[in-house]
Amino acid sequence: MERNELYPIFLKLHQLNVLIVGGGNVGLEKLSFLLKSSPNANVEVVAPKFLPELEELVERHPSVKLTCRKFNRWMLRKRHMVIACTDDLAVNKRIYDLSRKRYLICNIADTPTLCDYYLGGIVTKGNVKIAISTNGKSPTTAKRLREFFEEIIPEDINQMVLNLNEYRKTLKGNFEEKVNKMNEITAALKIPVAPVVGTERNIQDGR
């Protein structure tokens, strides 16, 4: 059986340098997705021109910079991750190849073979964050699972997390004893849920 071998990580985008190349609809979608989860992400968007909606979005996020010019290889300096979403596949491929030479992780929009990572579905409730991936096979399933978890996870789960964090600070004993105690307290969270079945449609907001 095919297995999802992607490794999920949670990046501190306000401490990294992100480059998005493309100022059209896909660039707007990618930037919106990043900022929804990480509103203080440190991003530079490069393109000869930008959608008005993208410019309006950037006005609300001072950590995002717009550079109105064509892509040049020197723009990859001091970056950590790159997203290329121009309407020219040759330009996107060049960005990917240049990024790989510099050991930068790169995502080429709608081209899974030229992606080192995917932007998956994300659920956020305060300090709790869940990332969802279908290995690029069914974006709609990721979307439906996101909606499902947003509905089923209670809004007060953040307060529970804060309370558990304070309680953990009061525990005595070694590391193993503390882990066992926390496992005992949180055992009630293991609630079985019914499977969710979605129908694939052309919705591209999750991987």
Structural summary, described in words:
With 207 residues, this protein is of the alpha/beta class. Helices cover 35% and strands 15% of the residues. It contains six helices and seven strands. It has helices spanning 25-37, 52-59, 89-101, 139-152, 157-170, 175-185; strands at 18-21, 43-47, 64-68, 81-84, 105-108, 121-125, 128-132. The strands form two sheets. It has a five-stranded parallel beta sheet, sandwiched between helices. A two-stranded antiparallel sheet has the order 6-7. The radius of gyration is 20 Å and the shape is elongated. Mean pLDDT is 89; it is low at 196-206.
Give structural attributes:
207 residues; elongated; alpha/beta; 6 helices; 35% helix; two-stranded antiparallel ribbon
Q: Can I get a quick summary?
A:
With 207 residues, the chain is of the alpha/beta class.
Q: Per the principal axes of the C-alpha atoms, what is the gross shape?
A: elongated
The succession of helices and strands, N to C, reads EHEHEEHEEEHHH
Q: What is Rg?
A: 20 Å
Individual helix count:
6
